[in-house]
Amino acid sequence: MALLESPPGPGEDERAQGYLDLLGAEDPTGVHPGQRLMLSRALPLVYRRLWRPAGARLLMGLTGPDTVAEHRMALEMLSIAPGDRVLDVGCGPGNFTRDFAAAAGDGGLAVGLDASASMLATAVRDTGSADVAYVRGDAGALPFGDASFDAVCCFAALYLIEQPLRALEEIVRVLAPGGRVALLASCNRGPLPARASNAVVRRLSGVRVFGRDELTRALADGGLTGIDQRVAGFAQFVSARKPA
Q1: What φ, ψ does residue 78 adopt, rounded to 5°?
Q2: Cβ distance 38 to 160 under 8 Å?
Q3: Are 212 and 198 in contact (CB under 8 A)?
Q4: How far apart are CA 239 and CA 77, in angstroms?
Q5: More exposed terminus of the chain, fewer Cβ within 10 Å: N or C?
């Protein structure tokens, strides 16, 4: 609660489901099919074992990293130290969030944020650690104060967020000096420019197709340094650090 920019007032603290709901009836998810699917009650049941691995293969190809490798890469990119505060944006059912809490250890905290109540309900059910907290909130208007987190991750979610570049600005804002950010997002490949690819894919599915340099340039414009990008199929892994 201390990390929140504006803590809920009396009678506004909605934690009955095991997570803090800061959206209520508000829904920032978006109207496209892929975005609406994230709100379904059925998807969290198959997300970890079926949906997420299948999506990774579609995005990165048969030779790209599997979900186990993705978890390892996220931990390497974030360099989480004991006692760190870690934010997982678009956390879904909390698969990565729990890894981050384990890396931060006693005294650390991992916060998973998502707009989907069904995803968060599954995350709460599958989490037994007191070092994990979940928040239902808008990635485009993160409810946390400036420099609140030592590390921020957004894996396989940025391309479904309605205002992804605004969300990226928010990620940079809540990142503490010396902290690291890790992203897994789409990456335009092939003969068509990103604008043309995105016009078709976004309209049909809600998935944003990012240009090869779009995210790295946005991070640089936000003042981050040490920017690294690895491309695998139609995906990109991007990490960066906020200067101390």
Answers
A1: -90, -20
A2: yes
A3: no
A4: 6
A5: C
- Residue entry with tokens 């678009």: 90
Q: Name the residue type at position 114.
A: D
* Per-residue buried b or exposed e for 156-193, using 16+ beta carbons within 10 Å of the residue's own CB: bbbbbbbbbbebbebbbbbbbeebbbbbbbbbbeeeee
Residue 153 Cα to chain centre, angstroms: 5
Tell me how long the chain is: 244
Structure tokens at 122: 């599954």
Nearby residues of 43 by Cβ (< 8 Å), 6 or more positions away: 37, 51, 118, 119
Q: Whole-angstrom Cα distance, residue 174 to residue 66?
A: 29
This model's pTM is above 0.70 = yes
2 class by beta-carbon count within 10 Å (0-12 exposed, 13-18 middle, 19+ buried): exposed
Rg from Cα positions in the chain: 17
Q: What is the DSSP letter of 63?
A: T
Strands 235-241 and 225-232: antiparallel
Q: What residues are paired with 180 via a beta bridge?
A: 151, 241
* Per-residue pLDDT tens over the stretch 97-148: 999 999 999 999 999 999 999 999 999 999 998 999 999 999 999 999 999 9
**SS3 per residue for 140-192:** HHCCECCCCEEEEEEECCHHHCCCHHHHHHHHHHHEEEEEEEEEEEECCCCCC
Q: What percent of the chain has pLDDT over 70?
A: 98
